[in-house]
Every structure is written in C-alpha cells, then in structure tokens.
Amino acid sequence: MRVVKNYLYNAFYQVFILIVPLITTPYLARVLGPKGVGINAYTNSIVQYFILFGSIGVSLYGNRQIAFVRDDQAKLTKTFYEIFLLRLGMILIAGLVFGVFILWTPEYKLFYLMQAVSLLAAAFDISWFFIGVENFAVTVLRSLVIRILTLISIFMFVKTANDLATYILILSLSLLFGNLLLFPSLSKYLGKISFKTLRLGRHFWPAMVLFIPQIATQIYLVLNKTMLGSMISIQSAGYFDQSDKMIKVVLAIVTATGTVMLPHVAHAFAKGDHEKTRECLYQSFSFVTALSVPMTFGLAAVTSKFVPLFFTQQFISVAPIMMIESVVILLIAWSNALGLQYLLPTKQNRAFSISVIIGAVVNLIVNIPLIMLYGAIGAAIATVISEVAVTGYQMWSVRKQISYRQLFSDIHKYLLAGILMFGVIFKLDSVLASSCFALIGEIFIGVVVYLILIVIFKVELVNKLRKRLKHAEED
C-alpha cells in the first residue's frame, strides 16, 4: 500500500511538472528566442559537470543507504550526517574550481554566475534522505510550492530577451530555496548526534562506485548540448534542448516508478526476500512498458503539428529531432526498471556502472561524426543509439536471474497497439488543420484507441486491474 501511495504522490507531482513546462516553454521560446534558449542550455550543461563532480554519486548512494538503516534511528542519524557533510565538502571544492573556470572564460560570464547558484543549491539537496525513508509527501509538497512561485516569477520578471540572466537566476534560486525547505522535516526522523563519532570517509569509496555511472550518464545527457554549442552553434544547442525538455517531461511520468521502487526493493532485498524483489521487477517492467509505448508512438506522431504550435515557427527544426528522440522514452523506461529498480537495490553496482559507461562511450564515439554531419538531428540519433546500448547490456546482465518470458510477456501486444495507434494519429495529423483543438483531439483519440486495443488484446495488466476492482467491489 505504501508503494501505491508513494507512486500516486510522485505521479501527481510528475503530472504537475508536466503542466508547468507546457505553460512556460512556449512563453520562453517566444521571449528568449533560439539564441537565448541556446545560451541557457549551453551554460547549464557546463555547470552540471561541476554539480556532478561535487555530488560524487550521493543521490543514488544516499537513497539506498538510508533505505537500509531507516528502521534504526541511531544508524539513520549517523548515516545522514556523514553523507550530507561529505557531499557539502565536495560541493565546496567543486565551487572553488568553478570560480577559477569563470575567471578564465571570456564568454557568458554573467550567465555562468547566475548558474553558479545551482551549484550552491546542490550542497543542500537532501531529497535522497526522504526518498530513502519513503516519505514522498514532503518532497512533493515542497516542490509544488517552489514550482508555483517559480512560475509566477518567470511571468513577472522575464519579459524580453534581455532578461535571460534574470530567468537563469530565478531557476537557480528556486532550486536553492526548495532544498532549504526540506531541512525542518528532518527533526521527525533524526536523533542527537556526536560529531566526533562521524566517519565521513567510510562513505567516500562506495559513493564513488555509483559516481562512475553518474559521470557516464551525465556525459550522454549533457554532452550533446555542450558539443552542439561548441561545434555547430548556440541555436542548434537550443533546438536539441527544446526537444530534450519535452522528452524528459514525458519521461518524468514513466520514471516516477523508479524513484518509488528503489528504496522499496532495497528494503525487501536487505531482508532477504529475493522472490519479492524479482516480482517487483516484473510488475514494474510491465507497468512502464504499458505507459511508455503510447507515449513514444504518440509523441512521434504529433511532432509536426506540436512543434510550430508550441514553440513557434522559429523552432521548426525541433520537429525531426523530437520525432527521432521519442524512441528513448521506451528505452529509458526499460533501463530505469532494470537499472534503478533492480540492479542498484540488489547491490549489482558493477553491472549498472558498466551499462552506463558503455552508453557514454558509444555516445561520445557516435556523437562526433553524427553532429558534424547532421547537427542536432545527429545528436538525437546518437542519444537513441546510446540508450539501445545501455538497455541491451542491462538485459544481458540479468539473463541468469530473471525469466525473459515473464519480463516480456505482453510486449508484442503493447507494441502492436502502439503501432496501430501511431497510424491513426499520423493520418489524422496530416488531414486536420494545424490548431490546438486539433492537437488535443488527436491526443485524446490516440489514448482511446490504445486503451481499447490493449483491452481487446487482453494484456495481463488489464486482467489484474479487473480482478482488483472486482475484489474491491466485493469488499
């Protein structure tokens, strides 16, 4: 019941953050233009490297460690302070190095200074603690308040392309204030601590083990924008960033299960319940497949109408990029289930690390020729190839632990429903006039078609839902 409750909290928040970009992104595209969007994407991609090195894998490591000791307040208190202070120290070092970088960088100094607040915010990010104790209500409430204030601030203070620095500062400050708001809620969980007993060093190397895959992950999440900004143009980085933002908005709903399931599976694994651990994977994999297939095919089908309506004609180049990149929705959904919801909670860090390192290496290798040949479209192709490599290796690494038959039991039904839905929407998209009403109509029809098809195909997830509803009515 706790997992369902936490998923609903997280899913509600993900729906909310789905709505916010739908409001702000078209506004900012019109106000800042391709160049302003590109400068923000490029400078943010640079500061993310410093945040990454300062965080040294604490987000994943801290989440898991807190889940392991959450039933013992003394261990919980000690573990929290050790991990928090370790990250604080590393962020301070990263901040000093970033200061030197700004001094030696001739371009975009003002924008880098505004982005630097995000680095400070990372030092006070303790969301990993609340995820570890499976308290999603406090993080969701905090995030809702901050995002609403951020939304209001953007419309109040960002009026022209000259307000780009103000926009970046608003985003950075929202991260900082949001993280600080979590600290009062700690008193419910933590007891007294003697700082003399803390051993920060014992967490360094275990966190570093998870830091390696995070470096690799960051490479193929952020490197595309850095390379586009350096090799092609700031505008092309902006085009890719707009596509990437929309993909991440859709992905947020699918990957909400990963945030919820990691501490839950880690707790079950710590108690030796391996059967429950595998069952969680099968259920989660089926669920994310059911969600990600229609999102992948649906987004690909409406890009030609969606992009000019949402971003304006200035960003028409985003359409083919988004159509190609939509494939990663399904791939990341699978790797999220296998990696974050199974490999990490069951302490298979090596397999997880190798998978994302492979993805990063593949991304780096294919990015250079593809970006040189096709620009932002090449970056999208490289992203898809990288995700295929990550998911493929993770599938191979768990081959002796799970049943592929159970894992992919209904995959052919979901894919067939998705392809048929794509055909219906794509045909409507070419016939209907370009308007918001037509776009909403296409999305609605697509959802209805997909739901009808998976019911007709009798997928197991629908059968389980029917049984639960029947039991609920009987009770």
Automatic annotation (TrEMBL):
<feature type="transmembrane region" description="Helical">
    <location>
        <begin position="249"/>
        <end position="269"/>
    </location>
</feature>
<feature type="transmembrane region" description="Helical">
    <location>
        <begin position="281"/>
        <end position="303"/>
    </location>
</feature>
<feature type="transmembrane region" description="Helical">
    <location>
        <begin position="349"/>
        <end position="366"/>
    </location>
</feature>
<feature type="transmembrane region" description="Helical">
    <location>
        <begin position="41"/>
        <end position="63"/>
    </location>
</feature>
<dbReference type="Pfam" id="PF01943">
    <property type="entry name" value="Polysacc_synt"/>
</dbReference>
<keyword id="KW-1133">Transmembrane helix</keyword>
<feature type="transmembrane region" description="Helical">
    <location>
        <begin position="164"/>
        <end position="183"/>
    </location>
</feature>
<dbReference type="InterPro" id="IPR002797">
    <property type="entry name" value="Polysacc_synth"/>
</dbReference>
<feature type="transmembrane region" description="Helical">
    <location>
        <begin position="110"/>
        <end position="133"/>
    </location>
</feature>
<feature type="transmembrane region" description="Helical">
    <location>
        <begin position="315"/>
        <end position="337"/>
    </location>
</feature>
<feature type="transmembrane region" description="Helical">
    <location>
        <begin position="84"/>
        <end position="104"/>
    </location>
</feature>
<keyword id="KW-0472">Membrane</keyword>
<protein>
    <submittedName>
        <fullName>Polysaccharide biosynthesis C-terminal domain-containing protein</fullName>
    </submittedName>
</protein>
<dbReference type="InterPro" id="IPR052556">
    <property type="entry name" value="PolySynth_Transporter"/>
</dbReference>
<feature type="transmembrane region" description="Helical">
    <location>
        <begin position="414"/>
        <end position="433"/>
    </location>
</feature>
<feature type="transmembrane region" description="Helical">
    <location>
        <begin position="7"/>
        <end position="29"/>
    </location>
</feature>
<feature type="transmembrane region" description="Helical">
    <location>
        <begin position="372"/>
        <end position="393"/>
    </location>
</feature>
<feature type="transmembrane region" description="Helical">
    <location>
        <begin position="140"/>
        <end position="158"/>
    </location>
</feature>
<feature type="transmembrane region" description="Helical">
    <location>
        <begin position="439"/>
        <end position="461"/>
    </location>
</feature>
<keyword id="KW-0812">Transmembrane</keyword>
<feature type="transmembrane region" description="Helical">
    <location>
        <begin position="204"/>
        <end position="223"/>
    </location>
</feature>
